[in-house]
Amino acid sequence: MAASFAGLDLLATAVVVLDDEFTVRYANPAAENLLTAGARSLIGQPFLGFFAERSELERSLEEARVIHWDYSARNVTYVRTGREPVPLSCTVTRIDSFGMALLAELRPISEQLRIEREARIESEQQANRELIRNLAHEIKNPLGGLRGSAQLLERELERQELREYTQVIIKEADRLQTLMDRMLTPHRAPRLEPLGMHEVLERVRSLVRAEFGVEIVRDYDPSLPDILGDREQLIQAVLNIARNAAQAGSDTVIFRTRAVRQITILKQRYKLALELQVIDDGPGVPEEIQDRIFNPLVSGREGGTGLGLSLAQTFVHYHHGVIEFESRPGRTIFRILLPIR
Question: Which residues are paired to 11 by β-bridges?
Answer without folding.
Answer: none
